[in-house]
Amino acid sequence: MTNVYEEEKKSIGLEKSVANNFMTSLIRASVEDNTSTPSQDAQGGLTESEIYGNIFVFNFAGHDTIAHTLAFTVVVLSAHPTVQDWLAEELRHVLGDEKPEDWEYQSVYPRLRRCLGVLSTRTGSGGSSTTTFEALDAETLITPHKGSFIAWSEGIRNCPGKKFSQVEFVAAMAGLFRDWRVEPVLEAGESELRVARKRIMDMVENDTGQVLLLQLLHPERAALAWKQR
Question: What is the pLDDT of residues 175-189, one digit of tens each?
């Protein structure tokens, strides 16, 4: 990290910076801020230690939290095939057969309400299957009452990564569930998926704990299989 910091500062000074990521953006903004405030009394940009601190916070908050959220979501969805079908219905309508690399945020993300609903709210349809494109496009997200859902906290000091995590989550749902479905792998003594799904939900409810963050304590006990639709 220190090498990246020093190299980027040097590149910016020589006006040769080409990298475009969060760290280089912080460095670039800090250097430009310091340049524009030459007075010793003026408050300049971020210091090197402040940049490292921000990188650490964003890496921790932006990776562990969404990783555990996705783990919980996929495991729970494996026990609810009808919800997977409900998601796939929207994804097929919005995305068709378009390749992921061709998806455009402006035209795709606002329409994937069900994918976002899995994360934080529920849709106006209540989760029922829809058969017309008009009804799909008319669905709306029901926002929880203030204070009833605070995954990102609330107010002026709420999580700065809220929108990023929502977009990342929706993209993951789209990439996984448009063309695939997931189900639990049967264990010895299990002859029906119904039994395996109940075991999975029992694990989610009883085998989770706080290890810095809330997480599945033994995810290896939830073996899953992906099948193409």
Answer: 999 999 999 999 999
